Amino acid sequence: MTGAASTLEGMEERAAFVRAHTALEPVPMVDGIRLYTASEVVPIWHATEDWLSERGLGVPFWCVPWAGGQALARFVLEHPEIVRGRRVLDFGAGSGLIAIAAAKAGAAGVRAVDVDPLAVAACALNAAANDVVVEVACEDIVDGDPKADVVLAGDVWYELAASARFARWLHAVSQRGARVLTGDPGRRYVPSHARELAVYDVPTSIELESTRSRRSRVLEILPLPPRDAAE
Ligand SMILES: C[S@@+](CC[C@H](N)C(=O)[O-])C[C@H]1O[C@@H](n2cnc3c(N)ncnc32)[C@H](O)[C@@H]1O
After folding, report:
1. Residue range 3-230 in CATH 3.40.50.1820
2. CA of 34 to the centre of ligand 1 (A)
3. Domain boundaries, the chain
4. Cβ proximity of 77 and 27 under 8 Å
5. How confident is the model over 101-109, as a mean pLDDT?
6. The pTM is what?
């Protein structure tokens, strides 16, 4: 399938899948935002695997808010001046939680980007459910121009190779003058060249995180010193 019509068709099919496997629920620690959320993750994981095997898509990261995303969304709502009047990119958006927080906080424009087509459908549904406008895109924009004044990345530091790519790119984006913030609950590959802005104890599900709370930091990713940037 090619062209705009097929894209729309795909979006409708994906939106139906998201709606069928989730319910609109409040987000712990992020007042005023509701997301299409899977109450039990295991069944949707299996359902998505079947859907996947037919279409070749990824695991359903979009069906829950992740601890790093909750921390960053909360921070954005508590500090609206960071995004107010600015163009914001939610990178690795998943459910779109952070994009929605940025829109509510008064961003001039918000784009949510993810490589998972189901995530993009979830972002669109979640934005509509929260009465905010978020542009969505399914693409890998790493190494490209983020076209944003502020880049927000929630909970994306869990895979070695991907994290190395993201870090190289986001340090460079910061070097070029955009603010780059991430929310991280202690994932293994979070960049070290960053400044801590806030810490929250984020309520989590035992099913996902094996604990009821994860201490999560909001970090500002900084430009690398010239010697490290050249490597
Ligand atoms: C753990 S989820 C976090 C979702 C959301 N930010 C949150 O905190 O709830 C990580 C997300 O990053 C997305 N992702 C992975 N590689 C990506 C890439 N190269 N570009 C954009 N998104 C990517 C995944 O599809 C997934 O939705």
Report:
1. no
2. 19
3. 3-230
4. no
5. 98
6. 0.92
